[in-house]
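Input/output pair, single chain:
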Amino acid sequence: MRTIGIIGSGQVGGALARLAVASGHRVVVSNSRGPETLADLVAELGPGARAATPEEAARACDLAFVAVPVRAYPDLPAAALRDRTVVDAINYDPARHGHVPGLVGTTSELVQAHLAGSRVVKACNNIFFGSLLALARPSGAPDRSALPVAGDDAGARAEVIAFLDAIGYDAVDAGPLAEGWRWQPGTPAHLVHAGATVREAVPAGVERVRAALAAATR
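Output:
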């Protein structure tokens, strides 16, 4: 059993917390508004969950997930996240979010520069939160979906791939962090699992995800 820290417990963060608890992990959920605003989520998650501040969640966790608005990345507690693997589930759509100061490569590279003492891995940003819950399947299921993973540290990528397997997903190892652009908004892989509704969410296995990543153009 591991402790998963969730920084940004909105729709995606909440879905990840639910899947983590269901797979036997402890979770510490947090947001920018304070632990008291997460009382309903913690009550739903049960005794394996508690609410905290982002810094407390970072210090308590073995593995952290960050699902905050892209402009909030400078507020991530860098010191508290030092020496931890941090999964960046942030999306950046210039049409919606405008220009992000300092962004030259991918948003994950920007997050990694801020979290210089952490091992940042890009994952879980190309699937709707409802689909994330609906498409989780046991290992070996014929309709199991895959999520792409990128990071500069091979051990950190393996750590995240193992967690994804535990919560119901295969993974496609896309290599270094700079490759995370291949499933940002506007690319074929960004909505590869999506249907018109959660009920219509489309399972997408390893080969389909690999093909979608290969089809990406800048």
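DSSP finds eight helices and eight strands in the chain. The CA atoms of residues 184 and 190 lie 6 Å apart.
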